Amino acid sequence: MLRAAQANALGAERAGDARVSRSVRVRANAEVTNLVCPGEKARERVVGGCRLRGASSPNDLHHFARRGGQVTAVYTSGAAVEGDPITFADRRVALVIGNSEYQNATALPNPTKDAQAIATKLKEAGFAVVSAHNDLGNLPFKRAIRQFEDAATDADVIVVFYAGHGIEIRGTNFLIPVDAKLASDRDAEDEAITLDRLLQSVEGAKRLGLVILDACRDNPFARTMKRSRTAALRAITPGLSAIEPASSNTLIAYAAKAGTSAEDGLGENSPFTTALLNNLFVKGLDIRLAFGRIRDEVLKTTRGRQEPFVYGSIGGDSISVVPAPAQSAVTAVDPEGERAD
After folding, report:
1. 82 and 105 share a domain?
2. Residue 48 region by backbone torsions, left for phi larger than 0, else alpha for psi between -120 and 50, else beta
3. pTM of this prediction?
4. Are residues 289 and 144 in the same domain?
5. Shortest CA distance to 331 belongs to which of 5, 50, 48?
6. What is the DSSP letter of 115?
7. CA 190, chain centre distance (Å)
8. CATH code at position 193
C-alpha cells in the first residue's frame, strides 16, 4: 500500500428523481478506501460492510485501484446528490533512527528497540514512507537524512524520530553517530549531526513537521571531551538546549526539557518512548493533547525526575499523527468502468 484515497460527499446538487453517477480516475499505485456513498443503489452487493459494484470482495477494490482504473460513486436518496471531487488523504512520511551500539562509549540498551517500536507503529498507522535505520555512523546518518528529504517531497505530515546520544556545545545541539570519538569539543562539527540539519528535513511539511528526540540521555562524551578555551567559558551539557523552529507548523519534542537528562529506563523501551507508544498513535487524538498525556505519563513513571517538553507552535486546526476513522464510509467500485443504467 502506497497511499490511500478518501472521498467525501460534500455539497449537493438536485437532479429531480434521476440517478446521478460520477466517475473519477484513480492514480496508479494508489489504494482507495472509505469512498463515501451516502445512499443506496439497486444491484449493489454488500460485502464485509462495504458496498461494491462488480466486485466479489473488498480485496477486488485494491487490485482494481492498482490497475489505475475508474472508481464510480453513485448517490441516490429520492433526489440525487453528487459529491465533490475525490481528494487524496494527507501524505504522511517518517524517518526513524535508533543509535545504541556506540563504538567509543558505553552502549545504550534501548534506542534501537525504541526506534523499531516507533517504526512499527508508524507503518500500522498507514504512513506512506517509513525510513527506519539503526546504529548509523556519521556518513550513513547524513545519507539517510538526504535520501529521506527526497522521499518527503510534497508530504503533508513529516515525522522524524531519533533515539540515542545528544549533546549541546556552545549553544548548538548535536546528535551523535555511533562512530563518533569526540575527543575534543571541536570535533563535534565534523563527527556529529547538528539538530538544525535534522530540522531541515521537515521544513517542507504542508501541515505538520514533527521532530521527536529521545536524545537527552546522560552522555559519556561530555565527561571525557577536551574543551577548547572558548568552550571552557560556556557549558557543555549532556542534555539539549532549547530551540524554536524557524518554520511554522513545526514541533520539536524533547524527552526531557532543555538542559536536563532523560532516563534510558529498565524496561523494554525508555520511559519517553513508552509514553509515545501509549499516546501518540491514538486515532484522532490531537497532537497537543497527545503530548500533554505523554508528559504526564513520563512524570508519573519517573516520579518527577523527567519532564518532556515540546517547542514550536502550530495553528488552530486539529491534527493527529493517526487520523480519526472516516464515519459512515461505504466503498463503491466498478472494475469495468461505469456502465449505463
Report:
1. no
2. left
3. 0.70
4. yes
5. 50
6. H
7. 29
8. 3.40.50.1460
d(CA 68, CA 21): 19
Cα–Cα distances in Å, from 83 out to 22, 23, 42, 323, 329? 9, 11, 19, 22, 13
Cα 338 from chain centre: 37
340 within a domain of the structure (yes/no): no
Per-residue DSSP letters for 161-193?
EEES-EEEETTEEEE--TT---SBGGGHHHHSE
Instruction: Name the residue with cell 436518496.
Output: 77
Residue 326 confidence (pLDDT): 64
Tens digit of pLDDT for each residue in 60-104? 333 333 333 333 333 222 222 233 333 346 899 999 999 999 999
Q: How many residues does the chain have?
A: 341
The boundaries of the domain holding residue 63 are 4-88
Residue 70 · residue 26 · CB < 8 Å: yes
Domain termination site, one of 64, 88, 112:
88
Residue 62: in which H helix or E strand, if any? Answer: helix 58-66
DSSP assignment letter at 32: E
Alpha-carbon distances of 123 from 43, 90, 99, 236, 310, rounded to whole Å: 36, 15, 20, 37, 24
The pair phi, psi for residue 141, each rounded to 5°, is -60, -50
In-domain check, residue 309: yes
Cα atoms in the 13 Å half-sphere on the side-chain side of 238: 16
User: What domain count does the chain have?
Assistant: 2
Q: Is residue 337 part of a domain?
A: no
Position 129, amino acid: V
In sequence order, what are the residues at sequence separation of 6 or more whose Cβ sits closer than 8 angstroms to the Cβ of residue 190?
none
Cell of 169: 556545545
Residue 137 has phi, psi (to 5 degrees) of -80, -175
Phi/psi region, residue 62 (left: phi>0; alpha: psi -120 to 50; beta: rest), is alpha
More confident residue, 15 or 218: 218
Residue 329 in any domain: the answer is no
Take residue 246 and report the three cell numbers written for it: 524557524
Strands 166-169 and 193-194: unpaired
